[in-house]
Amino acid sequence: MIVNIDIFIAKRFFKDKSGNQRISKPIVSIAVVGVALGIIVMILSVAIVTGFKSEIRNKITGFGSHIKIVNYDTNTSLETVPINKNLNFYPSIDTAEGINHIQPYAIKGGILKTQENFQGGVLKGVDENFKWSFFKRNIIEGETFQVTDTAKTNKILISKYFANLLKLETGDPVAMYFVDKPPRMRKFIISGIYDTGLEDFDKKFILADIKHVQKLNGWDKNQISGFEIILDEFDEIKNLSTNIRNNYTYPLFSEGTKLRVLPITTEFPQIFDWLNIIDVNVWVILTLVIIVAGFNMISGLLIIILERTSMIGLFKAMGSTNWSIRKIFLYLSSLLIGKGMLWGNIIGIALCLIQKEFGIIKLDPATYYLEVVPINLKILHIILLNVGSLIITVIMLIIPSYIIAKISPIKTIRFN
Q1: Its pTM surpasses 0.85
Q2: Mutual orientation of helices 269-307 and 309-317 as an angle, nearest 10°?
Q3: What angle do CA 374, 378, 383 make, to 5 degrees?
Q4: Closest of 263, 247, 253, 234 to residue 67, by C-alpha
Q5: What are phi and psi of 361, to 5 degrees?
Q6: Bridge partners of 178?
Q7: 349 pLDDT tier (thresholds 50, 70, 90)
Q8: In degrees rounded to 5, what are phi and psi of residue 109?
Q9: Shortest CA distance to 34 belongs to which of 284, 349, 291, 386?
Q10: 186, 176 in Cβ contact below 8 A?
Q11: Among residues 223, 285, 331, which one has the least CA distance to residue 39?
């Protein structure tokens, strides 16, 4: 069995408990603790930020899907220009790769009113193909309503914000007024109450049968405000938006129907720009943590080298090369870094799992759109953090290890 002498010696130093390291031991321990703390901070930072982005994205796309197809003349107002539902890509487009679901919708601005109070909102009409999974996860009272292609239902789904403001409960009747010429009113029954934590959206949307919106807008049963397209992966928005625009909507221009493909990132740019800024913050944190951990290990390595100067001189006198001796100390540093990373991973992952399971750290939903700090713990992220940190830190130690070449064996042996 062939034994690498450099690794063997490094392991002996690593396991040495003889107490001959009175100077270096506390400094090295501090360096190892610094590495552990760095790994903890990096794991928490990445898990929290990716979890935060994922939760916000899921909530926003739950309300507005990933991509919308609307009339080219539609603007940001609540008075949308209708398109015909019976286009050649509906509903077959959901068989395309990356596209999970397509559903028609229609909107109409109005005012919910009770005897004591009133509040403006957007009546969003949905049909029997609407995907309810997002609202079912966020419903806190009652249930969703069923839409059929025959009978019209008067049930609606409102947010907790509307319910608290207007003092409404599940099963209560409520009137909604629409500013038309002449003004009109519809009576609805509350089927359920949802709460997503996205106040900007919770203050806005009321879900109802699409037939109500079509009738209020003076449209026929085939006219809608647009289509919502749900994708399999959020990161495919840009590519699939281009694909849908080129292969499905652009050919319709020649038929007289002008459509616009509207990705959710374009519809709400301020939110997604904010999320992108968070990415920059994480990279800054990771860079600073790695630099600090690297300098901690550099100081530890230098102290170890200085403490073992006589041993280095002896190795040189016995014929060892500078590179061979440098490898001993680099292997030793790698073992010390690995020790810190091991404890850092154990503690960091444990903290993430505790937060994910019990939601100990809370957030203000009005500011962060979430009630608790989210955690997105992925093995790939942990592996990349550990491998990247180890490689960068060891590379940072190569230059300081050159001090070994300056040590003269004659002077160190004579000094002893």
Answers
A1: no
A2: 70
A3: 135
A4: 263
A5: -85, 120
A6: 184
A7: very high
A8: -75, 140
A9: 291
A10: yes
A11: 285
- Model confidence at 342: pLDDT above 80: yes
CA atoms within 13 A on the CB side of 72: 9
HEC-encoded secondary structure of the chain: CCCCHHHHHHHHHHHCCCCCCCCHHHHHHHHHHHHHHHHHHHHHHHHHHHHHHHHHHHHHHHHHCCEEEEECCCCCCCCCCCEECCCCCCCHHHHCCCEEEEEEEEEEEEEEECCCCEEEEEEEEECCCCCCHHHHHHEEEECCCCCCCCCCCCEEEEEHHHHHHHCCCCCCEEEEEECCCCCEEEEEEEEEEECCCCHHHHCCEEEEEHHHHHHHHCCCCCEECEEEEEECCHHHHHHHHHHHHHHHHHHHHHHCCCEEEEEHHHHCHHHHHHHHHHHHHHHHHHHHHHHHHHHHHHHHHHHHHHHCHHHHHHHHHCCCCHHHHHHHHHHHHHHHHHHHHHHHHHHHHHHHHHHHHHCCCECCHHHHCCCECCCCCCHHHHHHHHHHHHHHHHHHHHCHHHHHHHCCHHHHHHHC
Among 47, 40, 43, smallest CA distance to 340 is for: 40
At 1 the pLDDT is 47
Residue 267: alpha-carbon gap to chain centroid: 19
For residues 360 and 354, the answer to whether their CB atoms sit within 8 Å is yes
Alpha carbon of 37 to those of 345, 375, 383, 394: distances in Å?
Answer: 9, 19, 17, 17
CA–CA gap between residue 214 and residue 177 (Å, rounded): 15
Q: Which two tokens stand for residue 348?
A: 């960091």
Question: In this predicted structure, what is the pLDDT of residue 64?
Answer: 82
For residue 119, CA distances in Å to 122, 158, 173 come to: 10, 12, 15
| 182 upstream amide cis, omega within 30 of 0 | yes
Amino acid identity for residue 210 in this structure:
I
pLDDT in tens, 84-138: 898 888 888 888 899 999 999 999 999 999 888 899 999 999 999 999 999 999 9
Could you give the CA distance from residue 115 to residue 335 in angstroms, rounded to a whole number? 73
User: CA–CA separation, 196 vs 65, rounded Å?
Assistant: 15
Residue 342 token pair = 């091991």
Phi-psi region of 195 (alpha: psi -120 to 50; beta: other; left: phi over 0): beta
Based on its alpha-carbon atoms, the radius of gyration of the chain, rounded to whole angstroms, reads 32
